[in-house]
Amino acid sequence: MRLTTRKVIAAFLSSIAVFTPSSLAQLDGDDTIKSVPLRTHSLLQPYLDQDLQSRWFDWGGDTIIRADQYIRLTSDRQNQAGWLWSRLPLTATNWEIEWEFKIHGQGNLFGDGMALWITKQRAISGPVFGSTDNFEGLGIFIDTYKNNRPGVVFPYVSAMLGDGQTSYDHAHDGKATELAGCSARGIRGASIPTKAKLTYFQENYLQLDLQYKNQDQWVQCFNVQNVTLPQVAYLGFSAHCGELSDNHDLITVHSKNLYSANPNRPGPGRSGKPRKSTKPPKGWNGESESSGGWGWFLLKFIVFAIVCAGGYIGWVAYRTQKRNSRF
């Protein structure tokens, strides 16, 4: 089939239209908030490198890693505790952490639960969902066993800001030390992938969203204004079982550095307090401010390849048409 110059140009232009920056920007949902992936605080299968080690995370206790499926912090056996912690501190001013997990087991009675940590301490086993008490920073607890908290439906998800001296309120399931929380009936043993998304803008708000009812349906658990976390803290996950047990699996972790493209316009569902623009500096995690991260590098490479391919195809079509015109 003969290629004409007009057809080549039309195909070339349609190819470029697919990869325009505007089409990529729509993936963000809120065009006032931009993000840069934090590879140092993210986890995907197979989790381990060829030496069966993780470059960015340490683990311990009863944690088991099955490279093709999950990181199991505790198995469905009594008296287990496991943890996984980032090796590098989370130094981003504003960030979002989305993690997929699965809590399940064989028994009709189960416990105790799992936690996410943003704390100055790291990799220390203890009585608070498998990690140390008297922590300094933030703990997010998915508590599956009710001790003594009347009027509250379990499983229950709560947050605590630790000052390094205050102990977690075990006797009342964290009631005395709770910053915010919500009931999440159905989050254990759900038929869909269960996820949580924690968003933090320094001195503005801390928000937790959960997915456990329907696929791609997020439910806001809490939004707390004027929260300040330690500027240098580690990301961790832990779980604990006592006389009752459960499997507590960590599937994936996606962490992002966030910055506001329009500091005078707050995002939906957030306070109207103007945010400071915290665009990441050049060199952040190997990505520059001008490039916008690996996504923009890939975009530029694709456009460059399309231009080269289009030019070559056009030249071939022109030479073919000119040769045919001689006859």
Automatic annotation (TrEMBL):
Region feature Disordered, mapped onto this chain: 258-289
GO (cellular component) term, any one: endoplasmic reticulum-Golgi intermediate compartment
Membrane-spanning parts: 294-318
Domain of life per record: Eukaryota
InterPro entries in alphabetical order: ConA-like_dom_sf, Intracellular_Lectin-GPT, Lectin_leg
SUPFAM superfamilies linked: Concanavalin A-like lectins/glucanases
Protein name, as recorded: Legume-like lectin family-domain-containing protein
Biological source species: Sphaerosporella brunnea
